[in-house]
Write a structure and sequence with these properties.
- There is one protein chain.
- The chain has ten helices and seven strands.
- The N and C termini lie far apart (49 Å).
- A seven-stranded mixed sheet has the order 3-2-1-4-5-7-6, sandwiched between helices.
- The protein is an alpha/beta fold and 282 residues long.
- The chain has two domains: 96 residues; 173 residues, Rossmann fold (3-Layer(aba) Sandwich), CATH 3.40.50.150.
- Bound molecules: S-adenosylmethionine.
- The site of S-adenosylmethionine has 17 residues, from helix 4.
Length: 282
């Protein structure tokens, strides 16, 4: 068994990790965040460091990096959107869109995340969902595409950004996966009737990690989802834990009084997001 780290050594590792995270933040702020070798390398290192930090330093690093958390999350969210638009364009215009999709570097993460989410649903007694609503599906809606193509689900993609929805539809058409789409802002105080109808009929409503900037925003959104949900609708809320909260907003079961949270899953693999499986109170 390795000897425990001396406190001074552990503090030094935490200090260097925090310094590196801030340096990566500055490096990314010096770019336009569009995919290119420099941006890809900086995001790659940032994600790797947040997913697999040195053992035992998470609390100290989070304390040190706290003043930069909004900058880091902003960069991650903008970078993810730009990367998805870039890859969606590549896939939609490729001679062989299916082969181009296979080249997307994070495809494996989506396959792993969806498998984990379906396993989490199974663990609380849900069958594989047949009707799914994905909220905040984005320009490259891989979650919905994987659920439709590999698990036979009928998928509705929802996004407030018409350009993201158009991009997602182009990808789905290019790879010949049938999905539907609806433009709506799920943060609005009243959800459109066509969306509430879809939510009521769905087996699963999935709230993307970037929908709702913080826990209070997610509490308000999920309270409205709970009001619209049918008796058998599962609600899956993507979140983050540990240093991964530098990349995505964090939300805990206690932050969501409008839902009954049944299960909380925190991967320690390359899957970045944690998952809360919930339902409307009965
Ligand atoms: C960058 S994409 C990434 C999705 C990511 N692949 C995932 O699985 O979470 C996030 C999308 O969420 C959408 N979004 C954010 N807030 C939203 C809201 N309140 N209502 C609808 N869509 C929203 C954005 O327009 C964006 O297209």
């Amino acid at each position: 068994m390795p000897a425990p780290r001396a406190p001074r050594e552990a503090a030094g590792i935490a200090e260097r990790t925090a310094e590196r995270l801030v340096a990566l933040c500055e490096e990314l702020e010096d770019t336009d965040l569009r995919p290119c070798p420099r941006v890809d390398a900086a995001f790659g290192e940032l994600v790797q460091l947040c997913c697999h930090p040195p053992t035992g330093c998470t609390a100290t690093v989070l304390e040190r990096v706290a003043p930069h958390i909004d900058r880091l999350r902003g960069l991650s969210s903008s970078g993810e959107g730009l990367m998805e638009h870039y890859w969606a364009g590549r896939i939609a215009t490729a001679a062989d869109p299916g082969a181009e999709l296979e080249r997307f570097p994070y495809l494996g993460n989506y396959l792993d995340l969806v498998r984990l989410e379906l396993a989490a649903l199974t663990a609380v007694g849900h069958a594989t969902p047949r009707r799914v609503v994905v909220l905040g599906s984005g320009p490259l809606p891989l979650t919905g595409l994987v659920l439709a193509a590999r698990h036979g689900a009928e998928v509705l993609h929802v996004d407030r950004d018409p350009a993201a929805l158009d991009s997602g539809t182009s990808v789905a058409e290019a790879v010949r996966i049938r999905t539907r789409s609806l433009c709506a802002d799920v943060s609005s105080t009243v959800l459109p009737t066509d969306l509430t109808t879809e939510i009521r009929r769905a087996d699963l409503v999935l709230l993307g990690a970037l929908v709702g900037a913080d826990a209070p925003a997610k509490a308000a959104i999920t309270a409205r989802l709970a009001a619209a949900a049918g008796p058998d609708t599962a609600v899956l809320v993507r979140t983050a834990a540990g240093l991964r909260t530098l990349l995505y907003p964090q939300v805990c079961p206690a932050d969501l009084p409008g839902l009954d949270v049944l299960l909380e899953v925190h991967p320690r693999t390359d899957v970045v997001n944690s998952v809360l499986v919930a339902r409307a109170p009965r």
